[in-house]
Amino acid sequence: MTQSSLCVEASLRDFYITPSSLRKAFRDKQLIPYIQPIVESHSKCVVGGEVLLRWLHPDFGYISPELFIPYVEKSSAINEITDYIFEYVGNSLKSHSDTLPRKMKFCFNISPKNLNNKNLLRSCAKFLETLDDIEPLIVLEITERDKIPDLGSFELVIKALQNNKVQISLDDFGTGYSNYYYIEIFNPDYLKIDKFFVNGIGEKINSQYIIKSIVSLARDVGCLTIAEGVEYAHQYSYLCHENIDYMQGYLFSQPMMINSFASLIIDRN
């Protein structure tokens, strides 16, 4: 990273990314949902994708998600932004529904704080209704960087979502606050193996042991597994050997605009 880019990032972090700048970006349609394809491990067929928010600023250009996503999660506008993402993705995919396979999985990142959003269930229902001809599957990826003291209060919300055909994934499992307690509270359908452990394949034996243990745990509690951040062939081979169900990462595809995602489906599948 160059000195100039470091200065830009420092400027963004310290002076530019504020609640008001986020709201302005939201109002001005600078926040754009992209999709990173998710593949079935052994066939490499695209079975869905993770929705990732991108900020395309008129002055700064592309702003790294690592810089602004933590601000979004703490923003008072987080629920409004989440609702917008569901609507944007649903409407964008609708125009390609004649080329998309049925039962594709679309993963949306949410914080437990999002579960207090009264519109979340409505947004999920509207997304499913918009794309009812391809019967998509919604997967909510629960991610948490800060400890939530009363997770038990979310159990009823989770049950309501799951009763409405919404699946749950624990994101970054084994790091931060995503732990065994979350399995009991959220009753997830997927455990997502963090790229930190994937990066250690072939370099850190403990990373491989941890991946093995997560896979074993997932099987015991009836979850499927997704590995993220897969970039190299040796990582792919190891994860296939461990029978990881799904993968995503630059080895398969970078995040892309929804039009490009629809074209990729035609080419790959």
From TrEMBL:
Residues 15-269 form the EAL domain. Coiled coil: none annotated. InterPro entries: Cyclic-di-GMP_PDE-like (IPR050706), EAL_dom (IPR001633), EAL_sf (IPR035919). GO terms for molecular function: cyclic-guanylate-specific phosphodiesterase activity. Gene3D superfamilies: EAL domain (3.20.20.450). Pfam families: EAL. This is EAL domain, c-di-GMP-specific phosphodiesterase class I (Or its enzymatically inactive variant). It comes from Kosakonia arachidis.
